Amino acid sequence: MARRREDRFASADEAGQALGNLVTSDTLPPVSITPVSASRVQEAAPALAAPGKVPTSAKTVAVLPLVNLGPADDEYLAQTLTEDLVDLLSVVPELRVRPRGQTAKMDDAARDVRELGRTLNVDVVVDGSIRRIGDAVRIAVRLVTVEDGFQLWARRFERSPAKVLTVADEAAGAIARALATEHAAQPRQGTTDSVAQELYLRGRFLMHRGWFESTRHAVGMLREAWQRAPSDPRIGGTYALSLARIMPAEDNGGETTREARAVADKVLAMSPTQAEARVALGLIHLGASESAAAATEFGRALAVSPNAVEALDAVGRLLAEAGRPEVGIETLRRALAIDPELSQARHTIGRIYGLFADIESFEEAMGPFPEHPGDLVPYLMTRARVLLWSRDPERAKALLPRLSDLALSPYARASIDGLFEVASTLTLSPALRPKIDAMLSLDAPFAPRRLCFHAQLRVEIKLATGDVEGAMKDLHGADAHGLVDLVWLDRCPLFDGLRDRAEFVAVRAKTAARAQRVLQAIDDAHVRFS
């Protein structure tokens, strides 16, 4: 990956095409990457378009966030409708739609839509507002040209909460016709149960906010919605996805996994092209360390929904682990362009730069401390790992005062404090050792991928504190739980001087074979990134 912007991939499409040009031999060579400044994601992200060649006459469109004119509790309605409009217009063949990441902050009710359109370099802008009035929701949408401010189309809708999403369908079709293009999407059939629809909208909003506890709250709402409307594939697909997202942290004997799979299978039997159910199946496979099968499911999801952000995020992570870090970063940037709240993608990009000792790019990718408590733990975990890799106790000590003021749960507090204690002292005290063993147990009833992650952290802690034999034992634990992170093996500085050891060579060979199967599955799925 070149340092100069002009030498990088011009778009994520070029990155996707580069998949076929990268190494696909059975024995993968050590991974390399050229450090690059991690410029702001929204600047680097390409404009999104439907699969296939975009006509030269394609019009560029920006959908500004619908302004919520009602109480703050109704913000989920405005955001959900905005997301739906972007998704629906993105599959219209002759439109190029700016991703939500480029417009998310343009939500001022007093905004100048033409000026924002010029800033975004688009031909037309979709603008609107939403207000709940009693038992009805009133939505106003208009289409304005940037050049002369001409209003091409406008309409006011009034719907019950159960039929709010039909507005996005109707508006997208009308906008496509106003721009003289063919509307590819078909109207969606959903439940008429107003309670189920309200629960679905609220649950979907929470699930996409980007932190784990929000998804846990969403599961309850979506479960009730699904129970009320068991023939609505949209609700079922979102419910299955929410279950698959919390699955790695559940220790209920696989109950969550079984429920997620059952719901996803039922949804796909009703609607084979339901993307969220496909993503759910992919996450189930990923949690079980069946990474190649996961890649296949993610590819199927992207084939029917190119902007399926969860699939893009997962594929980006797999690419970055399995030996194609450059393409992985481009894919993760694509996901962030669609959903800037996807903090996990930022952390993965930061982790990649950390592995390649590009600290400047790491800092740019990670950004400042996140505002929401739920995003703090993975953010701090990534920072602690990079500090361990670099064996830089002074930088770790400099962060300690910040940690004491953070609002963390007791378990999160113990985990983060333990990691930073090791990073700031490069020792594993007798008092801390049993706590680390308990927190990062390899015998806990968690999904294999999480146990693999536990093993990787144990390896890093032991290598940073000089316990090479203990680290090699835990490396075998990572291998036993399906390690595919070839980049970690090849680039983590803690392995320097150890890569000729027989234990390491054996684990790397098996990891390389698994990584090759993942890359082959991605190639076979013909995943496109634009």
Automatic annotation (TrEMBL):
<dbReference type="InterPro" id="IPR019734">
    <property type="entry name" value="TPR_rpt"/>
</dbReference>
<keyword id="KW-0802">TPR repeat</keyword>
<protein>
    <submittedName>
        <fullName>Adenylate cyclase</fullName>
    </submittedName>
</protein>
<dbReference type="InterPro" id="IPR011990">
    <property type="entry name" value="TPR-like_helical_dom_sf"/>
</dbReference>
<feature type="repeat" description="TPR">
    <location>
        <begin position="275"/>
        <end position="308"/>
    </location>
</feature>
<feature type="repeat" description="TPR">
    <location>
        <begin position="309"/>
        <end position="342"/>
    </location>
</feature>
